Structure formats: C-alpha cells, structure tokens
Amino acid sequence: MLLVLRLVSAPLVILLATMAQRRFGHAVSGLIVGLPLTSLPLLWLVALGHGTPFAGSMSTALLTASCAQMALIWSYARLARHYSPVVAAAGSVTVFTVLALLTDALHPSAPLAAFLGVASCVLALRAWPEFDAAPVVDGRYRVGLRVTLVTLFTVIVVSFAGWMGPQLAGLVAALPALSLVMAIVTHRELGGGATSHFLHSVTRGSVAYVVSMLAMTELLRAGQLALAVVVTLLVALAVQAVLHLSDRVTGPLARRLASRVEARLADELDNVGSH
Hints:
- With 275 residues, this protein is mainly α.
- The chain has one domain (2-274).
- It has helices spanning 2-24, 26-34, 39-50, 52-64, 66-79, 85-106, 110-126, 143-164, 166-173, 177-190, 192-221, 225-274.
- α3 (39-50) packs parallel to α8 (143-164).
- The radius of gyration is 20 Å and the shape is globular.
C-alpha cells in the first residue's frame, strides 16, 4: 500500500500543475506548485512508515530550509537570464545547499523559521529580475520526464528517510524538486522569460506553503497526523485565497493611483513649460 501511495502521489501533483500551466498559464501553475502538495504526501508517508514524531522532526527541518528554497527559486530566475538550464540548476542548487546547512546550524524555532521563510519570499519578490514573459505554447512539455523525476525523488526520500534521520531527510526533502523540474523544462521549452514568470508565481504561492508548514509542524508535534494533513491544506488554500483577493483589490487601486500621479506630473510639467 505504501509503495502504491509513493508512486501515485507525486505524478498526480505534477500532472495537475502541468495541466494548469497549459490551460491557464504560468501564473496559475506557479500558485499550484507553491502549495504544499508534495510535502504533505511525503510527510504523511514518512509518518506512516516511521511514526509521527519522526515526521514532526522532519517537518521542522523542512520549515527551517524554507528560506533556502526561496533562494534557490530566485537564483534560478536570476541565472536563467544569461545561462543554460543546466548551469542555472547547478548554481541554484548550490545556493540552496549552502544556505540550508547554514540555517540548520542556527537551529531556529519553528515560528522563527516560518518568519524567515516569509521574509525570504517578500525579499525575493522585491528583488525579482525583470523579464518579458514568454507566452505559453502548445506542446508535449515532456510531461513524462517531469513525472519520472519527481516520482523518483519522492520514492528515494521516503525510502531512505529512516537511514538519513529526520533532520537530514527534512533538509533533502526541502529541495523544491517540483519547482526545479518544471523550471528546467519551461526554461528549455519557452526560455528564461517564461521561467521567471513561472517562478515568480511559485514564490508568491510559497507564502502559503511556509505558513501551512508551520501548522503542520505544530500539529505533528502534538501527534495529530490526520488533523495535520487536513489543517495544513486548508491553511494553505486560505492564505492563497487571501493573497489572490488582495491582488484583485489592491491591483486596480494601485494602477488608478499611478495613473493619477502620472496625470498630475504631466499637468505640472505643462504648467512649467507654459511659464
């Protein structure tokens, strides 16, 4: 049963994200990937195999490495401006490894790790490299490659979690394999602009991931596995909904304010020119 769950959970997520990317574009696909849809089944399978306390410690390590995840995503988008997918992937994974080990050495509490993760999302978005986003095009998108790589990653982590221990297993599982695989394939198929657009949405969606993983960590510590899975998903969806609604409300207001400021500046320049 566990083997079947290991083989089915990851492909379902990657297929969902790929279908969303094809149908709705990189923004929606990025928001889906930003949800804890890979971490949830991974921690659930680990808890079934090694116990809830083990999964709780692993969840804490995952949360600790959340700022390293944001660094990987941002650095890939940055490197994609000038380099190939292989170089961008190698450089961003190196950044992730170094930062994850440094953060883990500090042993932050779960709330502090969550704060650092959200702060990393905000900083990454503010410093995001600008791109002209490429349009989504029809194509195979190498779905089989995506499914195979992410499935292998999930199976390996779950299979060797007991050997690695919860801390190391959590740091390894924190590698955003789904985002990385989709970024590489998007980079190869559509170029750096589309990749940056996709990863920007992943970063926005990762705020929900960090907040929901904090809930997951606390509930796993309390030994509430089933409740942890349900609450984590609900929290992630709620945060995504709030972020989406805030964009719908503040976006038009910001554009209106900007247009008024531009009009006022134009009037002032005209007055200066007339004098």
